[in-house]
């Protein structure tokens, strides 16, 4: 449907084109996600694997709404945005951005399969597989954000964190893993942008009249 294609275009611009989020793109993304979730409940939208990915993409914006709520609620105590509220909002936005980027890449990859390998890829492009992939993405993103939360807590605790013994080693390992993940997430974000541009470049020129 045209509305779903417009929504995907909005999300690609928001997460894979813009260098950083802003109030306008965030508001448009939230409104688009709310409309899309309602639209996907319609009988006119067929139950396909692409619809599963789009549904997960729209649901990811719930995290953006929760981050705004956490800023408003937790930040109201003490008359300003508390460090706890700021950290929680940042983690929720990180989860939203990472899940959305990967889900958008899943939609692009599926479009590539539909265009160039329609019959060969049909056994893979099932609703069941799409749901499994979506759950795997959310599980990995949740694990990533849990590690970031632990690292933020250790940084906030500072000197009170043990530096020796098994706990000290565990804290050092979690801090190193969080730093590595932050570096990899940046590299992965650049890589996903390149892959998505290449996929749609191939699709566009394959459908253009020769």
UniProtKB/TrEMBL annotation:
Molecular functions (GO terms): G protein-coupled receptor activity
GO CC terms in record: plasma membrane
Superkingdom of origin: Eukaryota
Principal location: membrane
Family annotation (InterPro entries): GPCR_Rhodpsn, GPCR_Rhodpsn_7TM
G-protein coupled receptors family 1 profile domain: residues covered: 32-210
Subcellular location: Membrane
Membrane topology: Multi-pass membrane protein
Pfam families: 7tm_1
Record keywords, A-Z: G-protein coupled receptor, Glycoprotein, Membrane, Receptor, Transducer, Transmembrane, Transmembrane helix
Listed transmembrane segments: 12-40, 52-77, 97-117, 170-201
PROSITE patterns given in the database record: G_PROTEIN_RECEP_F1_2
GO biological process, one term: positive regulation of Rho protein signal transduction
PANTHER family: G-PROTEIN COUPLED RECEPTOR (PTHR24232), GENE 5127-RELATED (PTHR24232:SF83)
The name this protein goes by in its record: CXCR3 protein
Organism field: Daphoenositta chrysoptera (varied sittella)
């Amino acid at each position: 449907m045209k509305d779903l294609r417009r929504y995907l275009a909005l999300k690609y611009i928001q997460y894979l084109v813009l260098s950083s989020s802003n109030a306008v793109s965030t508001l448009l993304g939230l409104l688009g996600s709310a409309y899309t979730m309602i639209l996907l409940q319609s009988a006119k939208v067929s139950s396909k694997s692409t619809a599963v990915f789009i549904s997960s993409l729209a649901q990811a914006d719930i995290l953006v709404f929760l981050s705004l709520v956490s800023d408003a609620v937790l930040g109201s105590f003490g008359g300003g945005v508390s460090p706890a509220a700021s950290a929680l909002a940042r983690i929720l936005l990180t989860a939203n951005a990472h899940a959305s980027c990967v889900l958008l890449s899943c939609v692009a990859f599926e479009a590539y399969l539909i265009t160039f390998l329609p019959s060969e890829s049909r056994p893979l492009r099932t609703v069941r597989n799409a749901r499994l992939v979506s759950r795997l993405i959310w599980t990995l993103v949740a694990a990533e954000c849990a590690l970031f939360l632990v690292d933020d807590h250790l940084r906030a605790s500072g000197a009170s964190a043990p530096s020796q013994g098994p706990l000290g080693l565990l804290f050092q390992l979690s801090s190193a893993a969080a730093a590595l993940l932050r570096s990899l997430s940046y590299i992965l974000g650049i890589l996903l942008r390149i892959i998505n541009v290449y996929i749609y470049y191939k699709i566009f020129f394959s459908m253009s009249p020769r």
